[in-house]
Amino acid sequence: MTTRRKFLQQTALAGAGLFVSAPSLANIFSPNSNLHVVIMGAGLAGLSAAYKLKQKGFKVTVLESQKRVGGRVFSHNIQPDLVIELGGEWVGNSHTRLQELCGEFNLELENNQFDTHLIYKDEYFPAGKWNYSENWNKKFDQIIKEYENFSDADKLALDQYDWWRFLINKGCEGRDLDIRELLDSTDFGESIRHVSAFAALAEYAESSEKNEMDLKIKGGNKMLAEKLADAIGRENILFDHKVSRVKQTDKVSVVCTNGKSFTADKVVCALPTFAMSKIDWQPGLPENKAKAIQELQYARINKRAILFNERFWKVENFDLITDEMPHYFYHATKNQKAKEGVLISYTIGEKAAVAANRTHDRYQKELETTLSPHFGKLDHLVKDQLNYYWGADERTMGAYALYGIGQWFTVKPILAEPFEHIHFAGEHIADWQGFMEGAINTGEDAADAIG
Ligand SMILES: Cc1cc2nc3c(=O)[nH]c(=O)nc-3n(C[C@H](O)[C@H](O)[C@H](O)COP(=O)(O)OP(=O)(O)OC[C@H]3O[C@@H](n4cnc5c(N)ncnc54)[C@H](O)[C@@H]3O)c2cc1C
């Protein structure tokens, strides 16, 4: 089967130079040359680029606007013995590069799979006691099989409409359609009416059985970012350095809001598109790239972590999809040893924007309304709450990129094109788009393109 990664490369190459790769410097300079590369952003894409470039012998400087590495990998200790993820959560079984890096840095990956419970139309169905209709399950298996034989033209055609329309056209209806919308929208962060049918089908057809919700790094996913930072050398990573201007001549000058400026031979821009749009590019970005940056939306996701005095849900592998406001719950402290436990209420799209503005008291009432009819009174068990709304994150204004109708094969390759001395990286241009794995892949690809 042609995977998204391979297919994107093929179409890009065939597509009238859509993907104009910069000439590799490896041919010009020795791998141990002392060229200076500035990397903008210390998320997984920027860190992976810096790590690989350093291994190749380049001098690297990573400029990061925040006071920490990891970016959208944002592990947080809600109490000393309990760590939760406010950003990237699951490592997929198919995410081989991330797993390799964990091996290299002696990080342990733990099982983080769940068996999903359901609340639908006020009725509660424990895991294993609900399913799609037999008819739809059969059809969906068939759809996934058919994808293996899709031609490139079939894939391009799929990108012309949305995943909700695709499901309807394939005969998904009623309760099956309602539940697919609830579940699939958690993957994309917005209603599936906004998601390219190609992006969705490719993800489901190429993913592991649990749709890449398989593992997580023991102690928090940020451990990988920290290990990468150690390997790059902490002295090469500068916090509180927000890039505001990038000026290219025969070299590149990168200027930060704190007045510091850096001269580099090459630059890796590993920033989300919203952050890119705030930079003064001299000369200006090519028109098609500037337009692509304006066109791409990011999904609104809200994570509300609720710390309970005890794990009333009983089983460690608990998650729950609901047709109510809190949308999706999962046990965010699975197998972490403590009496307390955290459920994260994960909302998307409009619901996320509403959830973000709720006070703790009001949200507790939403919890009671949704959960108490099935799990008993809970308010006396709530110990604390914490909310992070990605839709208002000043760097991304969303959780991850959302490829809408007709954008996968047009907007994405343009965003990936290098511009003179600048190479781009980040989850938004990855084949594993929306994943930590994708961020790492693009960072390493940018490093390889440089040398
Ligand atoms: C809620 C949520 C859930 C997710 N769930 C999963 C999941 O389950 N599994 C999974 O694999 N992935 C998941 N992801 C996606 C994953 O976290 C991202 O794909 C990945 O971390 C993105 O890495 P990046 O390096 O491309 O970008 P980022 O991590 O955003 O890195 C960009 C960096 O640039 C910095 N920056 C921004 N502007 C400037 C500037 N002007 N100057 C200098 N620095 C700047 C930022 O502070 C940031 O550190 C999730 C993300 C979110 C938000």
From TrEMBL:
Gene Ontology molecular function terms on file: tryptophan 2-monooxygenase activity
GO terms classed as biological process: auxin biosynthetic process
SUPFAM superfamilies xrefs: FAD-linked reductases, C-terminal domain, FAD/NAD(P)-binding domain
Family matches, as Pfam families: Amino_oxidase
EC numbers, comma separated: 1.13.12.3
Amine oxidase domain segment(s): 44-450
Cofactor: FAD
Family (UniProt): Belongs to the tryptophan 2-monooxygenase family.
Protein's UniProt name: Tryptophan 2-monooxygenase
Organism: Moheibacter lacus
Lineage of the species this protein comes from: Bacteria, Pseudomonadati, Bacteroidota, Flavobacteriia, Flavobacteriales
